[in-house]
Amino acid sequence: MPHHVIMPALGMNQITGKIITWLKGKGDSVRVGDPLMEVETDKAIVEVEAQASGVLTEVRHAAGSEVPVGHVVAVIGDGAAPLVFSDLAAPAEQAKAVEKRPVPIEQRPAAPIEQEPREPSIAPATAGRLLVSPKARKEAARRGIDLSRLATRGKGPPYHVADLDELQKEIPSPTPASVVASMMEFGASIDIEPVLSLAEWIGKETGKPIALDAIWAAFAGGSLGGGTRRIRLHTLRGSQVYVVAPYQGLSQIVPALDTSDAVDLVIHDLSGSRLSRTRIGSEHTPSLTLAAGPSPSKITLTLLIDQAQLSEPAAMRFLDSLVRRVESPIRHLL
Q: Alpha-carbon dihedral of residues 220, 222, 228, 231, nearest 10 degrees?
């Protein structure tokens, strides 16, 4: 009878799973243990194996679908699965084979029933098949770490952010000269009065005050462009992360509850202090510093960024867009 393939629960708190790719197509013959599909959870990407033999008669959810745990994603129907040599051997011959003395591993023929564990591939072409958590993949892209190097450290998958931290300790740090050579710095001096007037107007319209931190995050996220952005803002009062989505109202921007993920920009607001500059180690994320200007209504902006993070023209466009939004907040609404 047909066998229903369901979305498995691969974690204690998992509610859904995302089908990354189908490794078998409709009409393909499958055997027990054959990889059927790759599923992504919040922890890792895992290969799901067939639990029955037959023919894949139905594929109910395409790659990229988010499917609740327990829902049927495919059906394996009755059909002729491909035979291997061991299926054709006579029972007596199989018994004799069992009685034979074992030969060294390197001289044994391929066994269809028990296979040697597959070594993790480290070739660049298959590095994407490593079992790496989505969070670790995103963090590796931000840090510029080759994921294939994880498999060379002797530890098996799945890999997480902690594994990246250990791997990065083994990667030689760039020399100070190379770090300095790759950094770019841009600055501007602007009038803060339009932003203060905007904050006052929003407070009157909504009946509740809006933090300047939220406005800075909104203007910076809009200037970066490219969809939803995460902005981390440091002040003397502490640190907050804001998630800024396109066309989001300024009064709707509030601090995020999850502050652990990577961010697109770090803002150091020193305007309420006597500090004027900041640089913390080698910046892994573009850094924008706000400092008091030559007069009470002026502040200075300093953008420090690595050429690998953003090209020179893109960095200049970002800061120019931000300055224009501050000087004329109506631009942010257009």
A: 10
